[in-house]
From TrEMBL:
Keywords: Activator, ATP-binding, Chromatin regulator, DNA damage, DNA repair, Helicase, Hydrolase, Nucleotide-binding, Nucleus, Transcription, Transcription regulation. It catalyses: ATP + H2O = ADP + phosphate + H(+). Its EC number is 3.6.4.12. Residues 1-30 are annotated as: Disordered. It is an enzyme of class 3 (hydrolase). This is RuvB-like helicase. It is found in: Nucleus. It comes from Arthrobotrys oligospora (strain ATCC 24927 / CBS 115.81 / DSM 1491). DNA helicase participates in several chromatin remodeling complexes, including the SWR1 and the INO80 complexes. Belongs to the RuvB family. GO terms for biological process: box C/D snoRNP assembly; chromatin remodeling; DNA repair; regulation of transcription by RNA polymerase II.
């Protein structure tokens, strides 16, 4: 007996992460914010301000500007940035990083910053290409005797018959094209397009004339292309500048033994040089002037920005002035603090004053009891947790007294306890048990303060 089990997709709905409930900024069409919308509760001013930022980004009039989200821990800064990315949609690049990501022993920190800058700048390339497009009616490789002798035969060319709504054509293609035909697994009855000058073959899908032949759900059925087989077609591609950098970085070495060794080792990131970037910028600018390409400045979000050091900050200053620059959103939960990399320069949010001066600063405020309660209710709903009113009240109280994060974290363990006790909902009992099992920061600090130094290590 063969054992067959079905693999169930773990779709996004079944997993809940910290910000799963956030769906957007939740603004009305006039830009004002509703009290509870898009998964957001309160923080109206910050949401409205970011709504304006989103509009500026969409109208492309904000490149080179930077925004700072400043506020205490757990006031929704990261959640707000995420909401911005959702508002922008998938066509605008959004690159989230954390300040500490920049520090690596292999790559210079300014280099790492630069890479992330370029990941946040998109380029929409519109190309009109000469293509052959149609449903494949015939696919015959033509064989010839192997020119090197021997018994084997090689493929000298391949005949492809294409049919579109307005005509048919037979093409004789190069054997190299045959390889990409095979790679795309093209068969008779598929709709394909072949680029005339590069010979690149792209399989669009299965012709819907064949829709009834198999019962395969995975197959995408497409109609027979309109117009002639041979035509001009506009192809739109979205890439980031970093994609271009990588694609054009010098391939590793030639054919000698040393480069063979080089290929075994992991490719160095430093291969993308400043010179290469400038070359690419030049080409990009040319494309933009010719109207082939369009720049889409996206968003670089640097969370915990106080983790950057003084060198990174001066670099940021410069990078923001470049003509090709994304919108930079920073977030920090520090007040007055030492700037990393300096001895004793103290500045607001750990950011040097000259950079602070260029930022639009948006403040996030602490939540009141009512808001905390609504957020917890929302989270419980997203995680599929039933909770009694009394239990909700206690957990909300923790949100006020301890922190919103602590309160949110109590939800799931309490739900597990409730399920173990075969209850339908979380009651006060489970919450109290959780309080005993998982202590909050304040209590933990109190215990540590009372103990001898290093008493945990025996
Ligand atoms: N206004 C809000 N509405 C709904 N959920 C919120 C709101 N604010 C925060 N949250 C949720 O509370 C949790 C903590 O928020 P978040 O991580 O955004 O805080 P933060 O300001 O980034 O804190 P930190 O400074 O510690 O990084 C997250 O799960 C977030 O989704
Ligand atoms: Mg955060």
């Amino acid at each position: 007996m063969v054992n067959i089990s079905e693999v169930r997709g773990n779709s996004r709905e079944t997993r809940t992460a910290a910000h799963t409930h956030i769906k957007g900024l939740g603004l009305r069409s006039d830009g004002t914010s509703e009290k509870v919308a898009g998964g957001f509760v309160g923080q109206e001013k910050a949401r409205e301000a970011l709504g304006i930022v989103v509009d500026l980004i969409k109208s492309k009039s904000m490149a080179g500007n930077a925004v700072l989200l400043a506020g205490g821990p757990g006031t929704g800064k990261t959640a707000l940035a995420l909401a911005v990315s959702q508002e922008l949609g998938t066509k605008v690049p959004f690159r989230p990083i954390v300040g500490s990501e920049i520090f690596s022993t292999e790559v210079k920190k300014t280099e790492a910053l630069m890479e992330n800058f370029r990941r946040a700048i998109g380029l929409r390339v519109r190309e009109t290409k000469e293509v052959y497009e149609g449903e494949v009616t015939e696919l015959t490789p033509e064989e010839a005797d192997n020119p090197l002798g021997g018994y084997g035969k090689t493929i000298s060319s391949v005949i492809v018959g294409l049919k579109s709504a307005r005509g048919t054509k037979r093409l004789r293609l190069d054997p190299s094209v045959f390889e990409s035909v095979q790679k795309e697994r093209v068969a008779v009855g598929d709709v394909v397009y072949i680029e005339a000058n590069t010979g690149a073959v792209k399989r669009v899908g299965r012709s819907d004339a064949y829709a009834t032949e198999y019962d395969l759900e995975a197959e995408e059925y497409v109609p027979i292309p309109k117009g002639e087989v041979h035509k001009k077609k506009e192809i739109v591609q979205d890439v980031t500048l970093h994609d271009l950098d990588v694609a054009n970085a010098r391939p590793q070495g030639g054919q000698d033994i040393m480069s063979m060794m080089g290929q075994l080792m992991k490719p160095k990131k430093t291969e993308i040089t400043d010179k290469l970037r400038q070359e690419i910028n030049k080409v990009v600018n040319k494309y933009i002037d010719q109207g082939i390409a369009e720049l889409v400045p996206g968003v670089l979000f640097i969370d915990e920005v106080h983790m950057l050091d003084i060198e990174c900050f001066t670099y940021l200053n410069r990078a923001l002035e470049s003509s090709i620059s994304p919108i930079v959103i920073l977030a920090s939960n520090r007040g007055m603090s030492n700037i990393r990399g300096t001895e004793d320069i103290v500045s607001a949010h750990g950011i040097p004053p000259d950079l602070l001066d260029r930022l639009l600063i948006i403040q996030t405020l602490p939540y009141n009891a009512e808001e905390i309660k609504t957020i917890i209710k929302l989270r419980a709903k997203t995680e599929g947790i039933n909770i009694s009113d009394a239990a909700l009240e206690i957990i909300s109280q923790h949100g006020v007294n301890s922190s919103l994060r602590y309160a949110l974290q109590l939800l799931t363990p309490a739900w597990i306890l409730a399920k173990v006790a075969s209850k339908q909902e979380v009651t006060e009992l489970e919450v109290q048990e959780c309080e005993d099992l998982f202590i909050d920061v304040k209590r933990s600090a109190k215990i540590v303060a009372g103990a001898q130094p290093n008493s945990f290590i025996s």
